[in-house]
Amino acid sequence: MAVCVTVIGKENSPKYISCLNPELDLQFQYKVHTSLDVVEEKLSSVGKTSGDVRELYLGLLYSTEEHKIFGYVTNTKIKFIIVVESSNTLLRDNEVRTMFRKLHTIYTDVVCNPFHIPGDPIISKNFDATVKSIMSGNA
Amino acid sequence: MRSSVSVILSSPAPDTSMSHPDYEQTAHDHAAVLLLVKHVGNQLKQKNFSRVYERLSRVNHVKVVDSVGVSREVSARYIKEYPVENNDWGDYQTHRRLLGLISVEKYDKELNELCRVHESLKVKYSSTLFDSRCVLFGPPADTSPSEPNVLSTPSNFKTRALFYEDCEACVGLEDQISEFLCSLFWVLESKRLERSREKVERVSLLLAPFERKDFVGLDLESRSNRKRCVGRMTKHLGDLSLQAGLATEALSYYSSAIDILKAVGDWLWLGGAYEGLCAASVVLLYPNLSRSFPLQRNASLQEGSPGKQSWGRITKENKKRKGIYRSADNRREKNGRSFFHFSLRCKLSVLKDSTVYILNSQNVTTEFIFLFLRSSSISTNSLPSDMSPTEVQQEIQNVLSPEDIPKRYREAIIHYSKYLNAGIIEMEACFKAARIAVEQGCTLQASTFLQNVIFINLTLSELEKIQRFTSLSDLYTQIGFHRKASFCRRLAATRYVSAQNPQPNWAQCYQLMLQALSGHKLLLDPTEFPKDGLQGWPALQIQLLQELVVAARRMGHSALATRHMTFLLQTMWDHLLPAEQRDLALQLQVLAAQCEGAPVPLVLNSGVVIPPANLTNLPQIWSFVLRDLEPQLRPQKIEKVKEDSGPFLFTPIHFGSLERKTVVTSSKMDYFWVEGDVCEVAMELYNPLPFELKVLNMRLLTSGVVFESVPVSLSLPPESGPHPVILSGTPKEIGELEVLGYSTHTLGVKSNCRLRHIGGFPHPLYSVDVIPALPKMQVLTSLPKSASSGSLGETLTVVMSTNITLYAGESAECSVTLSNVGDLPIEMVEVSVHSTLEPLTQEQVFQWSQENLQAQLPLQPGADASFTVYLYSLADFLNVSSTAYGSQPASFLSGPSSLPSRLSSPTFGREQASRRSELTASFRSGGSSHSGSSLGSSRSPFSKLGAPNTSKTLEGQLKLRYSGGAGLESGYCRLSSVTLSVEMLPSVQITNWDVLPAETNSQFYLVLDVANITSHELELQYTPSKCILIEGNESCRIPVPVNRCPLSKLTKLYRGGKISADDRLELDQICSEHVAASVDLRWHILSTGTRGRVSLKGITLTPEMLDLVRMSPLQWEVTLNSQPVKPQEELSCRAGQCLQLGISVHNFLERSLWQVCLAVQFYQDHQNGVNNYRLETRLANAGASKVLLPEVRNILV
């Protein structure tokens, strides 16, 4: 379903990047990287208006001719970015939300690992496998 | 209409489509008069032209009172280039028409030529041009003032020429231009009025350029086309009104045009009307947004792209924004408007002028900009009627509310997107809309507009694509989307050198790449780069830097390429794969071969400074330790000031510990370096690259005192380490030296690696004190060198070790030569010996003459001095400890108990006098009867002596403290040591000794068993005249006549009273020393010729021996018939003969003896061991055999 899944740290540096097609890795990185501008803008505008609990799901950040980029920010400012193909019209908003929720869950598992130092790149095999299955739409 | 649209879509007409997008347009430009300022000819310098252009650009607002008496505001937009194709769109949007022409040039002679060029320009834009001016500079006043025709244009030149002497002053230029602007306005106004008076039925159809051929043959008189004509004309009137300063009228024209055009489905013109409506509203709502800061650049559009789904969200966002907007608006009301407005403007323009404000702390700055943008969007609208947007809305009909403007723009853009040929219009509209959104503070909305620009598919030249991307980038920067901005800049940069670009411009590419760095959180100063590498996206950063390197290289600036490559390797090292590390390092090597990298900032033509990049990873440093000087060169205080810290050697209480400031940081070394001496720093390096790394010219970086560093070159094998490296140098001054790091030259790059910038070091620098220069001394000895430095304590300062083998008792000389190898005279030398020996023994073993040495000082550089150390192989010849013989000499003489009386005598130890008489006998018998047996048994103890008498080593350290020059004045010296190691071979050994009475009273015989432990034949001289030869490993017994110990040395013995144990020991000692001093034994090994002396020092004497050693206190002289009798002399006489026995006693004590009882006792010796004391029948006494003497006087007194 998704073509690229990234986890981005508090300071906006990448912690985990996985692409369906590793050859396009750099291209996706550019896309995800520029989408951070939108994420930051959304976060800053929300932060000002209300002190309420923020919706973690940011929705569509922007779309290009080939891809749509969705964002999700945890309360600790960890950003999840999922890139899907624009041609995939079957994918609905709800499914994207589901993917993010799964991603959040497995990310939590990674952070719960006492050997994982928060802020370090994620190198968990389990995480990797699960992300791969999310991308392929099996999970 | 659908059909016509399909026709349009099917046949694009490239010749009629506007192909030159103007990315700088703003909504306000809809209301401006377009003026072309053209630089004709080439006399005027570009700089001067720019200055003139600047001056002209400032005249962009003119107030004109129209015929009705209403004040109109006419704004102007000046441009330098205008393609004629764009002019053709003047019917569609009137602000695209070029209305005025100003040509600017400096002339000399060819005034006519200039006029001709000007005229040709006029012809080019003749369809729209209203009027023109020609600004002419020069010639200088003195040049041919007599020729009036120089200053006159040809008669057929219709343009008004403005003459100025030079382009600096140009008095009145602005006024002239204002006047020109006014004239243009009046022409425009007249055209507007003319149009507005046209009858509705008779209006002609206005066409966009590409539409012309589509309407050929269509029935223009049909009802729908009639309406179309009217709608288009209404919109056109709106355009004209807006340009003529009648925004409110324009609004109503636009609104009605929208109604009409919507009805007939004329989408292109409907879009235009929407845009016009927006533009008019913007002019009314934000009058001061107009081009006061020329910020916006350019961009380009494409068309016919899908993906407009996101547009729906804009309005939502907009509503959200409204709240902020309104509240900020209210705030503005409270503030003094004009002042507030002014200050904001200033700040805003400052911000926008600087392109570096994004470099650091992105978020903060972003907020900052937003704040100002938002504030400005609100507070800048000092409306002519002093109205806020809401008031304007209430006041004027048809004006759009701020949040409606983007909505209408969105609609306009959607309509434009239906036409392939309107791509540029669409793109420009996107930019205009984005700018409005930026001003309104609707960031996301602006980004959506900008995002749309990408979708517009246009065939543009590479240059226009570049402009598009840079414009996008500028706008993204404005809304704080720095990543996106950088992305666009990078794309623009790649366009400069793309394959399609006929004229690749690497310099421009490089400039843009450089600007893209900030968005990737890259700072060009590696020292500011976060060491943990948490910031930014390494993959993208590496990519960008690599592109930057390529751009720099291709533009021919090798130094820059080297610099960036160095930076890439330095900062991205941890993120590179090993293969990449290798490749990049090799690339760097290639680049640096063209231009070597140096640690100096590079200043580009644009004024950008590229800070130096230093390679600290190649080679990687593992340790960096300052080294103390060589131990023998270490300076020491000549006099150590003993601190008085109370009665305790250690106290946990630090006196003055309250002065915490004086605590020295550990980066300060606790030792000294010496001026002019080579000092060292030890490092460990690691080569992480898979090929051999050559490091050249490695030096130390220091500050503080002058330091001359010695370059080192090394070659590190691939992927290996740590390699120890020592960097050295010489301090040239006195004071504190700070060692900051090191510099390298590797892969062709010179780097200054400061510890401050290398992680993992506790201190950013190390400091060490440099003290004044000290001399250097070399020490040589005449003795052979030995490998070991000796086992004595401080072996560090030992410069030389010597070894000598001596037989016990042998003497040797060691000549010590001191050479001054330094540059300073040696003015002070102190010699001392340090060893484990007793001080007294030490003095005997090592002797030298300090005075001799002092006489040779000062020692000039290069000079030598020498002195001699006398070595004496001192040994214990007596072998006391090894066997029972020495320690119990009494047993030597025991054996067959010829002395039962002595051993069993009850007077033993109590009465000295009674014992003494017996001793003579005992010695006589012992000396004769036991010599044989003791000699016979001497073999066995001798063989036992072998083991303990193997060689023994004496060690001494000759310490030489020396100083001179400035170092001496400041109280420092150096210490050199020479280890003198004396290996002692045993020579002779005294295995046994005894004493025998001599023939005279004043002497006794010391009988020694002397063993020759060497394997050589040895000659022993024991008296001045007597020698004995002893074979190797043989022993023999020798009698040495010794004077008895005079009583004068033993006064304590007879002083009376108790003799304490201590006194007795002392007395024994005196006797022992007497014996040792009296006996002079010299040996001489014949084969080697070595000679030596045997010392009997420490010989122990039993009480029995002592009696003989000591002089007796009373001396006897016995006369028989007045003939003196010698002891043990035999005299014969006949029985019955009367003998006269005379006895005289001499008192040798220091005092008189009182009540001395002198008794004579006789006995008969049967010569068979039996003595008969009962002599009543054998001997008769005539006279007393016992006499009581009242006093025996001291003979000496």
Automatic annotation (TrEMBL), chain A:
CDD domains: TRAPPC2L. It is found in: Cytoplasm, Perinuclear region; Endoplasmic reticulum; Golgi apparatus, cis-Golgi network; Golgi apparatus. PANTHER family: TRAFFICKING PROTEIN PARTICLE COMPLEX SUBUNIT 2 (PTHR12403). GO terms for cellular component: endoplasmic reticulum; Golgi apparatus; perinuclear region of cytoplasm; TRAPP complex. Part of the multisubunit transport protein particle (TRAPP) complex. It holds the Pfam family Sedlin_N. Keywords: Endoplasmic reticulum, ER-Golgi transport, Golgi apparatus, Transport. This is Trafficking protein particle complex subunit. It comes from Zootermopsis nevadensis. The keyword Endoplasmic reticulum applies. It comes from the Eukaryota. Belongs to the TRAPP small subunits family. Sedlin subfamily. GO terms for biological process: endoplasmic reticulum to Golgi vesicle-mediated transport. Signal peptide: none annotated.
UniProtKB/TrEMBL annotation, chain B:
Residues 1-23, 891-950 are annotated as: Disordered. Residues 999-1109 form the Trs120/TRAPPC9 third Ig-like domain. It is found in: Golgi apparatus. Residues 632-742 form the Trs120/TRAPPC9 first Ig-like domain. InterPro entries: Ig_TRAPPC9_Trs120_1st, Ig_TRAPPC9_Trs120_3rd, TPR_TRAPPC9_Trs120, Trs120_TRAPPC9, Trs120_TRAPPC9_N. Residues 1-19 have a biased composition (Polar residues). Residues 463-589 form the Trs120/TRAPPC9 TPR region domain. One of its GO terms (cellular component) is trans-Golgi network. Residues 891-906, 922-943 have a biased composition (Low complexity). Residues 217-294 form the Trs120/TRAPPC9 N-terminal domain. Keywords: Golgi apparatus. Its main location: Golgi. Belongs to the NIBP family. This is NIK-and IKBKB-binding protein-like protein. It comes from Zootermopsis nevadensis (Dampwood termite). The lineage of its organism: Eukaryota, Metazoa, Ecdysozoa, Arthropoda, Hexapoda.
